[in-house]
Structures are given as structure tokens and as C-alpha cells.
Amino acid sequence: MVKQKQKDSRFSKEHWIQKALEVLSQTGGAKIHIEKLAAKLGVTKGSFYWHFESRNDFVEQVLDYWEEKCTQVVIEYLNAQEHSSGKSLVKALIDYLHDNDLLAYEMPVRSWAVQESRVQKRVESVDTDRANFIQDKLVTAGIDAETAENFAHQFICFCVCHGFMLPPLSKEQHRAQLHWLAETCL
């Protein structure tokens, strides 16, 4: 008789993924090691392999989660609203990113991307999607294509790179500076 695996609900797939992102945030994007992650969770690697076929599968699912939560959900949110101008769209984007703390994983994921080419390719793809979305929305709102393209890239750069500033900006300072950027450039 084949014994069926019993799922331990305390360590769901999402729990593993969220813990990986938390560890990335704490370690500044150090490469994810399954053994270390299992130790932090207080479980064996068997729990990991219950949810994921391999480390590669895990990496892809962590990146899927990051992309869904930090890009696709944002796009859906903005598409569900009407915006009277490019500025109002960008202000809604800024507030959504900050209200939901969606910029917290940007630096760690990008630091991880420096260490793994697969992660780098995914980040490049997500950045392209983000820039294209912002640019398309701004052009639709009446902003000229060159300004929209330049703004989209500068906006993404400032969202990502603010964490490198020393001393770091508070969330409210960062939000205020992004609003200033939108007011000044659009």
C-alpha cells in the first residue's frame, strides 16, 4: 500500500515563498539556500519538496509571486480606475505602491538578480512590462510619446534606487518625491 503524503498546513507553498522574500529583504538579496530557509522555518527540506519539485521550480514560483503581487495586481488596479490625466494615473500608482508596501522587495530581488541570470532575465522582463504599461497609459492620457517613455524609465529607476540613498528616505519622503516628480515632469 502506498502511503499518501499529508500536507502540513502550517507550511504552505505561499508561506515558503513569503519567507524567501522576507529572507531576501533581510539579507539584501543574497542567493536563496533551501537548507538555510528550512532552518529559519524550523522544518526539514522534506517540507520544501512537498511543495516544490526543485530549487529551480521554487525560484520560478518566488518570481511568479513577486511579479503577480508587485506588477500584475498593480496593473489590474490601475486599469479598473478612470484617470483624468497622466498625473492622476501616476499619483494613483504612487499611492498604491506605498499603501501596499510593494517597493520593499525591489532592491532584494534586484540584488538576487545580480547573482542568478534566470532572475536577471525575469527582472528585465518585468521592468519592460512596467515601463510599457506606464508609457502606454501616459500616451493614452495625452502625454507625448517621448515624455511618456522618459518618465516611465525615470519613475521605475527612482522607485527602485531610492533604497541606495544614504541616509535612506522614509516611505513618506519617497512618496512625496515621487509626487513631485510627477508634478514636475507631466
Automatic annotation (TrEMBL):
A Pfam family it matches: TetR_N
Tell me which PROSITE patterns the record gives. Answer: HTH_TETR_2 (PS50977)
Q: Which UniProt keywords apply?
A: DNA-binding
Q: Which GO terms describe its molecular function?
A: DNA binding
Q: List residues of the HTH tetR-type domain.
A: 10-70
- DNA-binding region of this protein: 33-52
User: Which lineage ranks, top first, belong to the organism behind this chain?
Assistant: Bacteria, Pseudomonadati, Pseudomonadota, Gammaproteobacteria, Oceanospirillales
Q: What is this protein called?
A: HTH tetR-type domain-containing protein
